[in-house]
Amino acid sequence: MSSSSDRVPSQEIRDIRFVDALSDRYLSYALSTIMSRSLPDVRDGLKPVHRRLLYAMRQLKLDPGSGFKKSARVVGDVMGKFHPHGDQSIYDALVRLAQEFSLRFPLIDGQGNFGNIDGDNAAAMRYTEARLTAIAGELLRDIDQDTVDMRPTYDGESDEPCILPSAFPNLLANGAQGIAVGMATSIPPHNVGEICDALLYMIKTPNVGFDKLIDFIPGPDFPTGGVMVEGRDAVLQAYSTGRGSFRVRAKWETEDLKAGQYQIVITEIPFQVQKSKLIEKIAELINNKKLFLLNDVRDESAEDIRVVLEPKSRNVDPVVLMESLFKLTELESRASLNMNVLDADQVPRVMNLREVLQAFLDHRHVILVRASNFRLGKIATRLEILEGYLIAYLNLDEVIKIIREEDKPKQALMKRFSLSEVQAEAILNMRLRALRKLEEIAIKGEHADLTAEKADLEDILAREERRWEIVGNQIKDLRKAYGQKTELGKRRTEVADAPTDVIVPLEAVIEKEPLTILCSEKGWIRALKGHQEDTSDAKYKEGDTGRFSILAQTTDKLLVFASNGRFYTLGADKLPGGRGFGEPLSLILDLPNDQEIVDILVYRPGQKLLLASTDGRGFQINENDVIAQTRTGKQVLNVAEGASAFICYQIGEHDDMVAVIGENRKLLVFKLEELPEMARGRGVILQKYRDGGLSDIKTFKNGMEKGEGLTWCDTSGRTWTRNEIIDWHGRRASAGRLPPTGFPRTNKFR
Prior knowledge:
With 750 residues, the chain is an alpha+beta fold.
């Protein structure tokens, strides 16, 4: 057993509040995630893992003209030298840089299975190979000319670049995605030719307006193509604030078949949409009868995307069919824009388009200055040596004599000819062959060339307009190499105006089938297939009975009017089936348990309702005005003091009269036009009562034709019709008189 003296002394233990310790550590984690993992740098558009991947591949000499190396070798170097994280995360980053459907301009040339647009994963890193692309070379260009700062790697054994020189506007060209702690970034890819045009214009006009910028850059350019359907105002708002989104649709066309038939072919899908999941979603909608106009979907894709949609019949409008698909599937998606990046001072912030472009230009200007200074230093060193050589040639015999006779020829040469240590060392290291006359001529020529180059570089550093001219020429060369005149640089995403609203009938997404909707006294509702006139044998829960029986279609909307004066909207296709007793309406809707259901109606667009309360007030309302957008319903009829119940009646298209009967058994008939149309309120007085209140109300068409006149049902179920109503006709708000013979003692029309 070891003695106490052999024990390692414990570390210092400090008392600290848990909340303080937790906040300090979480802040450190958050900063690490923001700075070193999730947000790209505005200058090169890369996160640290991508930057380290490209730099490691350059060290492995995986240039575009060289051979491939195993991805596992690359991942191993990155993980061992620069990025101490899991190998799978590094390989995932490498794979994305090589996927043509993920990056508009891939930075890695992959050989092997690197995944596909269906969402299949890449093969294991031991099977795939990689090398840099020419565009990655643009990002790394001049990195060995002291153009960027270097920092020690995590283990201190070597250095890595803090940023890449980036002669390519990678942030906008390839975009970026990332989620940090408390912030995120989402930048879609753009066309590099358009970016170059905007950059060249900004060099001439630094404070260019956003209206002009979006003339150059009208929107993103996705690697998978598609059609951007966003209005100019929305695009301008997004780019001027750095936040927004772009609506992108699949590109489609129709192909004519025999016998007048046709099929729709989708040739491009929105960015980051997996084709296999998209097709599965469409097939699921067909199977669930949510897409009635579509008969089948087939994937006939090879290298190009070809998804075939087979309509139900040739009479189906392809525009309506596609609009319904855009609403229900990812054939239309939104690409978000959140240009939250690290600026040149490593501060995360949301930049607008002009700031992002200016940051790239400023970076290229800095790189030019640093490269020029580096070259000047090299030239100065070389000129110093060449000047020493020229002195040696002019005094060749004396130089040789000093070298042969002196014990310390270096010091002797420096003293005799006023040479620097570098010059003297260079002379001593000269080969005898270099003493030829031709070599002297070559050195004089090199000296003249370097002197001219030095003067040119000094002029560049002295004149800012000259530097911006050079930056502009570099951007022009980039546009020539990768602009829209090249195959790689052609715009893939079509820019279109915002689509006009196309009304998609409900029949396009829901199969129209007859339903019989039953609702019990206690509010349990269900839908039976088919129209059933007689529902007397329908079964209900013990202690419950039937109340409402409505004939409808699966495409209908239902209006549920409750005793709180609110309307609730419900799709008939959303109701539980006929098996069992259904479900309580209070669960399907946000209907308070203490409220009763007054009526359930089938919605008729544009038609009118008559709403009345037992205190004798009422008004007309358009059915369009009672549609509720939420489950909590829409308040329409204000609950008046003294009103114990409400009545909701659907006005017939040709009705022109209103019949009102009170609890005092007085009947009044007046013209419908006397009843105002309102959107909300208590309404106007319908009938005056000394005692009691309103019992029932209805509308009808006055006339002598069949189906016209005032009708009611007696207790035996017999229907009565009265065409002569002059005796009960009066002004609204009158008292009325006793009803005709045969009118039921219940004082109800129905």
